[in-house]
Design brief:
This protein is an alpha+beta fold and 610 residues long. It has helices at 2-14, 16-19, 32-41, 46-60, 77-91, 132-139, 182-189, 206-211, 246-256, 305-320, 333-338, 343-358, 365-371, 379-384, 393-415, 443-446, 477-491, 578-585; strands spanning 70-73, 101-105, 143-148, 160-161, 165-166, 195-200, 215-218, 238-243, 290-294, 324-328, 420-424, 452-459, 465-471, 509-515, 520-526, 531-537, 546-553, 562-567, 571-575, 589-595, 603-609. It has two domains: 2-271 and 291-491, Alpha-Beta Complex (Amidase signature (AS) enzymes), CATH 3.90.1300.10; 509-609, Immunoglobulin-like, CATH 2.60.40. An eleven-stranded mixed β-sheet has the order 1-3-2-6-8-7-12-13-11-9-10, sandwiched between helices. It has an eight-stranded antiparallel β-sheet with strand order 18-17-20-21-14-15-16-19. Strands 4-5 form a two-stranded antiparallel ribbon. Helix 4 (46-60) runs antiparallel to helix 5 (77-91). The longest helix has 23 residues, at 393-415. The radius of gyration is 25 Å and the shape is globular.
């Protein structure tokens, strides 16, 4: 699988002249309606959009910040887009998704691309047909750019796999992107496509949405079909979009929800799907709304304090927009949440049914373990799902607690006359890659079956996104979308990653000079990596006399603290953290050379753009 993906990358990108044919149309951060309008007016074609997104993948996924979000690129994407362009000219657009580039999580069945759940044991496996939601998107005219990396078989929220490795968070590549739909979230926030599809068993849409400054909706259990999504837990699995805007989320949702005979659970959708969710997009929806803040989840101690502060600020912003905030406590809820999870019990049986029905070469979890073709980080989780009895008494006890969770939540909504409950999607910022991620509140929606939407709340001081979650009564997706849309229009919370700027209109490399009579030097910043390269000269100071060169924050004439120690070499590089990037670009950093004779600093040079 990995070898095949590498070959495809080489084929796609070897012909740089072909890729260069993409117009200088800037699709960066444009919504689906804006892209559709541009195609209708002739400003851009679907083929040119696809080529532009492929250029971004080339620039940022395996080079630059090396985000590692894509696991497979569709070799037919350009051809498919070209065919849809011809169809547009001949017959007109099929609808709002005609020619729109989309990425798919690697657990969505596609008849023409491998579907592996990012597990090397399924490398090269191509299912016999499309999953339901994939088929609906294809019929609507979407173009599939490719498949995104995911936490292997969706058994985690860090997004690491044996087929794809570790996906990295574009806001800080040292940190994980959440999961298991982390590859989709990174691809969407880095503008590799207009929108992306993920799946959510316990936070796998909402956690990566929170960590990527995106909107992510977990629909009411049964509102959409799970057919053709490699299962983790049939009781909790749902599929759906991650998007940079609410309008994009709604556009995809209109196409993908609804009853499907292949998934009996989705019969619950009958009578609950509107003609279009667009009718709920009301800028004034926050006026008079009542939201219940689950204050028990707002700890101020380390490591929760940073996220709690952002959530409180977002709640204050909601209150300032006309929302009445009611602090709510739900006694007994946490105990029920801890004792009602069934993922571990269902995973092995559900996966094996899928493998047998799909005709995969490997048929059981024991075979996967025996093969050794899985990531070491998953071994303990896989083993914990073997040797279980399907439908055991303990399993039935856990299932029996779930209606009580739904009752507690809906009762709280009714008693306080609330539109939704509000809480952090996950209570800590992303962990450094290699460390386990924890403190998600995914169980609230996943164990109750109620709908929940994650929306961008803001950023921690070091520039990491935080998500706030709203949960409502069954099939009240429309109300959640209305609240999210009104919040989006007033707060404008979307801020794309600095490391993945526009390739058309943004600057990728900045050049600086040291402004001082006693020190000379040139520096340049690679924006995709935020690496600052420097080369300085200090006349009259010998190399052996330099003790250290330090980077300070502060404008000319005002002293500020040390933020980096660069060492004794006059030439080198240093990573500029998010917190200081704007200071650098605005002339707010300076270098000081410290010597044996002048341990307090012999010379200072302000760093200014040249």
């Amino acid at each position: 699988m990995i070898r095949i993906a590498i070959i495809l990358l080489l084929v796609l990108f070897a012909n740089t002249g072909q890729l260069a044919q993409a117009k200088d149309f800037d699709a960066f951060e444009l919504t689906i309606p804006e892209l559709q309008a541009a195609m209708e007016s002739g400003d851009v074609t679907s083929e040119e959009l696809v080529r532009g997104y492929l250029q971004r993948i080339e620039a940022f996924d395996k080079r630059g910040p090396r985000l590692n979000a894509m696991i497979y690129l569709n070799p037919d994407a350009v051809k498919d887009a070209r065919a849809l362009d011809r169809e547009r000219v001949a017959k007109g657009a099929r609808g709002p998704l005609h020619g729109i580039p989309v990425v798919l999580k690697d657990n969505y069945d596609t008849f023409d691309m491998p579907t592996t759940a990012s597990a090397v044991v399924l490398a090269g496996f191509i299912p016999p047909d499309d999953g339901y939601q994939v088929r609906k998107l294809r019929e609507a005219g979407a173009v599939f750019i490719g498949k995104t990396n995911m936490h292997e078989f969706a058994r985690g929220i860090e997004t690491i796999s044996s087929a794809g490795g570790q996906t990295r968070n574009p806001y800080d590549p040292r940190r994980n992107p959440g999961g298991s739909s982390g590859g989709t979230a990174v691809a969407v926030t880095a503008n590799y496509a207009a929108v992306g599809m993920g799946s959510d068993t316990c936070g796998s849409i909402r956690v990566p949405a929170a960590y990527a400054n995106l909107f992510g909706l977990r629909v009411t259990q049964g509102l959409s079909s799970r057919d053709g999504i490699i299962p983790l837990s049939h009781t909790q699995d749902v599929g759906g979009p991650l998007a940079r805007s609410v309008i994009d989320l709604v556009t995809v949702l209109d196409t993908t929800v609804g009853a499907d005979p292949a998934d009996t659970q989705s019969s619950a959708a009958e009578g609950h799907v509107p003609d279009s969710y667009r009718k709920f997009l009301d800028k004034e929806a926050l006026q008079g709304a009542r939201l219940g803040l689950l204050k028990a989840y707002l700890k101020t101690s380390t490591p929760f304090g940073e996220v709690t502060k952002v959530i409180r600020e977002a709640v204050d912003a909601l209150a300032g927009s006309g929302v009445e905030i009611v602090e709510v406590e739900i006694p007994g809820l946490d105990e029920l949440l801890r004792s009602s999870g069934v993922i571990n019990m269902e995973f092995g049986f559900d996966l094996e049914r899928y493998l047998r029905q799909s005709g995969a070469d490997v048929q059981t979890l024991e075979e996967i373990l025996a093969s050794g073709r899985y990531h070491a980080a998953l071994q303990a989780r896989y083993r914990s799902s073997t040797g279980l009895q399907e439908g055991s008494e303990k399993y039935q006890e856990r299932l029996a607690r779930r209606p009580e969770i739904a009752r507690l939540l809906t009762t709280a909504l009714a008693e306080h006359r609330l539109d939704a409950l509000v809480y952090p999607t996950i209570r800590i910022k992303p962990q450094i890659t290699g460390e386990p991620q924890y403190s998600s509140l995914c169980q609230l929606a996943a164990h109750s079956g109620l709908p929940a939407i994650t929306i961008p709340a803001g950023f921690t001081p070091d520039g990491m996104p935080v998500g706030i979650e709203l949960l409502a009564n069954p099939f009240e997706e429309g109300r959640l979308l209305a609240l999210a849309y009104a919040y989006e229009q007033s707060a404008r919370p979307r801020r794309p990653p600095a490391r993945t700027p526009s390739l058309v209109s943004d600057v990728l490399t900045y050049t600086f000079e040291l402004q001082s009579t006693r020190v000379r030097g040139r520096l340049h910043l690679e924006r995709p990596t935020q690496m600052l390269h420097y080369s300085i000269r200090v006349p009259g100071v010998k190399d052996r006399d330099i003790v250290d060169i330090k980077l300070h924050i502060g404008v000319e004439g005002r002293n500020g603290p040390v933020i980096e120690l660069l060492g004794r070499e006059r030439k080198g590089r240093v990573l500029i953290n998010n917190a200081y990037l704007d200071d650098l670009l605005q002339g707010g950093l300076y270098l000081v050379v410290y010597t044996r004779d002048s341990p307090q600093g012999v010379v200072r040079g302000q760093i200014e753009q040249s």
